[in-house]
Amino acid sequence: MARNKENASGITLLGNQGTSYDDHYTPDVLETFDNMHPDNEYLVTFDCPEFTALCPITGQPDFGHIIISYIPRQRMVESKSLKLYLFSFRNQGDFHEDCVNVIMKDLVKLMDPKYLEVTGYFNPRGGIAIVPFANYADDEHQEIARQRLLANFNNHK
C-alpha cells in the first residue's frame, strides 16, 4: 500500500514554505499520520543532536542530544512537526529531567504508542553531564520498559 494525500491528510507542515518557528514550548505543533504497518511490531528512532533549552534558574542555554525511540500503534509522529516541537523548547526554562519527561508524555498522549523512550545526553555544565532517561510501555511491553530502564543504569556506571 502506497502513501497518498488521503492517508497523509493530517500533515500540514511538511512541504509548507511558510513554516513558523515558535521558540516557546508548543506541543500543539505535533502532527501524526497513520501507521501503514500496524500488524508489524517495529522500532522508529529519532536522533536529535541539536536540542536546546534554558536553565530555569540562570537563564543560560543548555545544549543536548535527544534520542526518541518508539514502537508505533496506529499513529506516528511526523518528523518535521517533531523538529518544530523540539525547537519550541529553545526559550523554555526547564531542567534536563523535566524536558525529557515532558517530551515523553507529550508523545505518548499524541500517538498512544506500544512503547516509547526518550534519552537526553546534555552537555556538561560546571563539570557535570546529565543523562535523563524516561520510558512508557503499554501492558504488553512492561518487560521491555523494565529491561531498558535497568540497561540505562548499567550504561552509566
Order of helices and strands: EEEEHHEEH
The CATH topology is given as GTP Cyclohydrolase I, domain 2
Full CATH superfamily name: GTP cyclohydrolase I, C-terminal domain/NADPH-dependent 7-cyano-7-deazaguanine reductase, N-terminal domain
Number of helices: 3
In what range is the share of β-strand residues?
25-35%
The helix content is 10-25%
Low-pLDDT regions: none
Strands in their spatial order, largest beta sheet: 2-3-5-6
Calculate the mean pLDDT score and round it.
90
Name of the top-level CATH class: Alpha Beta
Question: Architecture, according to CATH?
Answer: 2-Layer Sandwich
Total domains, how many? Answer: 1
Give a count of the beta strands, DSSP E runs of length 2 or more: 6
Radius of gyration in whole Å, from Cα? 16 Å
Shape: flat
Termini distance? 46 Å
Biggest sheet character: 4 strands, antiparallel
Kindly name the structural category.
alpha+beta
Brief descriptors of the model:
157 residues, alpha+beta, GTP Cyclohydrolase I, domain 2, four-stranded antiparallel beta sheet, two-stranded antiparallel ribbon, 25% helix
Write the layout of secondary structure elements.
Layout lengths: L31 E3 L9 E11 L6 E11 L3 E3 L1 H9 L8 H16 L3 E8 L10 E5 L4 H14 L2
Antiparallel strand pairs: 1-4, 2-3, 3-5, 5-6
What does this structure look like?
The mean pLDDT is 90. The protein contains three helices and six strands, in the order E-E-E-E-H-H-E-E-H. The protein has helices spanning 79-87, 96-111, 142-155; strands spanning 32-34, 44-54, 61-71, 75-77, 115-122, 133-137. The protein is of the alpha+beta class and 157 residues long. It is flat. The strands form two sheets. It has a four-stranded antiparallel sheet, with helices on both faces. The longest helix has 16 residues, at 96-111. Helices cover 25% and strands 26% of the residues. It has a single domain, classed as GTP cyclohydrolase I, C-terminal domain/NADPH-dependent 7-cyano-7-deazaguanine reductase, N-terminal domain (GTP Cyclohydrolase I, domain 2, 2-Layer Sandwich).
